[in-house]
TrEMBL record:
Transmembrane region(s): 63-85, 91-114, 211-232, 252-275
PROSITE patterns for the chain: DHHC
Polar residues bias spans: 20-31
Top-rank lineage group of the source organism: Eukaryota
Enzyme Commission (EC) number: 2.3.1.225
Domain description: The DHHC domain is required for palmitoyltransferase activity.
Similarity section: Belongs to the DHHC palmitoyltransferase family.
Catalytic reaction annotation: L-cysteinyl-[protein] + hexadecanoyl-CoA = S-hexadecanoyl-L-cysteinyl-[protein] + CoA
Name by which UniProt lists this protein: S-acyltransferase
Domain Palmitoyltransferase DHHC: 166-287
Stretch list, region Disordered: 1-31
Originating species: Spinacia oleracea (Spinach)
Subcellular location: Endomembrane system
Length: 425
């Protein structure tokens, strides 16, 4: 029955001209809905450029700071080499200058490739939240026999003979794949989640971890390169080191700056080389403990490095440029401790449907709009007053006999309530 209902819903909501429906992202739309690009209505906190082709994090503004911290000293070093190239051997001067330009360009390139790529965002699921519930339990829920069914918070998955617990994500409405986690900053579940890097303004995951390794490695090498040749420029002078430092302040500043920076970026590079060789993520290393204390993803240094650096990057799971229908997108609630799968609270007998419009505002369902609640209350108060009057007459009547007016008043109240409800519908 559920499969037929989904097929019928998908058929009725299919828009013309090949525009796909929003159903797989959680909506129930009709032909009258206006199509939009998915990146315009994506519920995460990401920013998008070039029509959804580039995916950035919400703190992408940190790219300006990172670019400045990398580019300014590196470009200063290159300009210094270019201005004073006559003081050195031309072959040495142009060789150092060329290598410095290439390293700076590669470092910034890896920085932006890490930041603007989809890190491995997992597609949200709003349709089949109850897949892991037994068929019998589902039938009881539909029949109204059970109101206490809840989604299990974890379930066991076997990988390479080891049992791993995966958690249910309340936001994305799915069981996270192994090694995935939900980033609270980007508000997305990310495959092979490593961490959210504030320096690149993006999550580091399955699809951009390789470029992150290249970025921090090139940054470390660039720091060592600028530090080494800036110090050589001071030592190449024929006079004393103190005199050379007083005449070449730029090189002194570059030496101090690179000496401090290399400890941070170099330490980060060594740490991630260790994680890569053992096939771990930062999240797993700090917060996760495997069953039996052994990492089921570790197959040796050679295979681990090959898997991360020399394998094809998997395609993105989401096409953010896809045309979807966004009118009257229904956002289902997640069952909590006091809720069942149907989204109703045990102590509530009122059915509420939450709808999200394109502007992002929460609105009242259509069947509850344009109701004159004040007029309904006045009419019900009048009926209550008439009922109280009939009750007084009932107390004064002989025992075993009920006045006809009392029976009429009770019937009138019921009819009034029904009339009001029908009229407002």
């Amino acid at each position: 029955m559920d499969d037929k209902r989904k097929t019928l819903s998908r058929r009725n909501s299919m828009p013309p001209d090949g525009v796909s429906s929003w159903n797989k992202y959680g909506s129930q739309s009709t032909r009258s809905s206006k199509p939009e690009r998915l990146y315009r209505v994506w519920p995460g906190n990401n920013r998008f450029l070039c029509g959804g082709r580039l995916v950035l994090g919400p703190d992408a503004g940190s790219l300006y700071l990172s670019s400045f911290l990398i580019g300014f000293p590196a470009i200063t070093f290159c300009i210094r080499m270019l201005v004073r190239i006559k003081e050195h051997d031309p072959l040495y001067g142009y060789g150092v200058l060329t290598a410095g330009v290439i390293l700076t360009f590669m470092d910034l390139l890896f920085l932006y490739m890490t930041s603007v790529r989809d890190p491995g965002i997992i597609q949200r699921n709003y349709n089949q939240v109850c897949d892991d519930v037994s068929e019998a339990s589902s039938r009881e829920l539909v029949a109204g026999k059970s109101d206490s069914l809840k989604i299990p918070r974890t379930k066991d998955v076997t990988i390479n003979g080891y049992t791993i617990k995966v958690k249910f994500c309340d936001t994305c409405k799915l069981y996270r794949p192994p090694r995935a986690s939900h980033c609270s900053i980007c508000n997305n579940c990310v495959q092979r989640f490593d961490h959210h890097c504030p320096w690149v303004g993006q999550c580091i995951g399955l699809r951009n971890y390789r470029f992150f390794i290249f970025f921090i490695s090139s940054s470390t090498f660039l720091c060592i390169y600028v530090f080494t040749f800036s110090l050589i420029n001071l030592l190449r002078r024929k006079r004393s080191l103190v005199h050379s430092m007083s005449r070449d302040i730029v090189s002194v500043i570059l030496v101090i700056y690179c000496f401090i920076a290399v400890w941070f970026v170099g330490g980060l590079t060594l740490f991630h080389f260790y994680l890569m060789s053992t096939n771990q993520t930062t999240y797993e290393n700090f917060r996760y403990r495997y069953d039996k204390g052994k990492n089921p993803h570790n197959f040796g240094v050679f295979y681990n490095v090959k898997q991360i650096l020399f394998t094809k990057t998997p395609p993105s799971a989401i096409n953010f440029r896809e045309m979807v229908l966004v009118e009257d997108v229904i956002i289902p609630t997640t069952p909590s401790e006091n809720e069942s799968f149907s989204g109703f609270r045990k102590d509530s007998d009122v059915e509420m449907t939450q709808r999200l419009t394109r502007s992002g505002r929460w609105v009242v369902p259509s069947n509850l709009q344009n109701l004159d609640y004040a007029d309904i209350d006045d009419k019900l108060k009048k009926v209550d007053n008439q009922l109280e009057a009939s009750n007084d007459q009932f107390l004064m009547a002989p025992q075993g006999q009920a006045p006809a007016q009392q029976r009429y008043q009770v019937t009138s109240r019921d009819a009034a309530v029904v009339t009001i409800n029908n009229r407002e519908r």
